[in-house]
Amino acid sequence: MGASVSCCISPGESPKILRRHVDLDECPFTTTEDVSEDTGTYLQHISDRELPDELAQEANPSDHPRASTLFLNKSQTDVREKRKSNYMNHMSPGLLTKKYSSCSTIFIDDSTVSQPNLKSTIKCVSLAIYYHIKNRDSNRSLDIFDEKKHPLSKEKVPDDYSVVDPEHKLIYRFIRTLFSSAQLTAECAIVTLVYLERLLTYAEIDICPCNWKCIVLGAILLASKVWDDQAVWNVDYCQILKDIAVEDMNEMERHFLELLQFNINVPASVYAKYYFDLRSLADDNNLSFPLEPLSNKRAQKLEAISRLCEDKYKDLSRSAMRRSVSADNLTAIRKSQAVLS
Hints:
This protein has helices spanning about 55, 70-90, 120-135, 170-180, 185-205, 210-225, 235-240, 245-260, 270-285, 295-340, and strands at about 105-110, 290-295. By secondary structure, it is mostly helical. The chain has a two-stranded antiparallel sheet. α3 (about 120-135) packs across α4, α3 (about 120-135) crosses α9 and α6 (about 210-225) packs across α8 (about 245-260).
């Protein structure tokens, strides 16, 4: 646990994904007839054991790096409509507010996949949740996440709470309050979105006006405990949401974990995919990350990091070459033993 992207071991595929029968002729498996007897024990390469691409595309995006994220797919409808409307009305996108680099000045943002910008990441995650709610397929839900049955405050829940879609600003304020009060990191926000989409897929429900607050809170609870070394306790969240009992918080977290079938693993490749898809979502909706001119100090820091990474990769390649030479020597020894026998 802690600041490690892959937190625990879990099944390689979503339990909810139905696997169709694959004939052996469809998969690129190599039979033992193709292997010469004098090569010793045959170890099949991992790439030879991969399933066809069409099966990978059917997988859960929160488990598999090649499957497209749900929020980006749901946002594309609105993005296409905006572009079409601007084209039909001959409207320009507006004033150019984005800064561009020139020969004398280079603009870069302070957000990277390992250290994302907190404010911009929360804005993107809240926008992804907004598109989930707006473009939902139906209103499938569970009682444990219903805000009227499990209210987060003593204020009366409006009668139209299950009909009116929340605005992006409302979702952003709700998430920002929790992250600011609990002092959570931007990486935790990305993991929150991964768990949210995994819940929707595993439990086969939709995030809608009646349940979005409880689902987001449950995902944040889980992500903060998995990601941070010093996790925030449930009783601490009760200090933020003062009207909710810790017993209700514990029950919601327990149901959330059961619906995930205790799969809290987030591979590094899945995390990176969600980060870059969130950046694509920001570009499509004119949510620019803060850009600053590249200073001499920042340039030296980037150069030092680049040199450190380059040395690290050189060490890895040397160790890989040594392992390859050792394997070749082992094969040669086995061949000579076979000849002598």
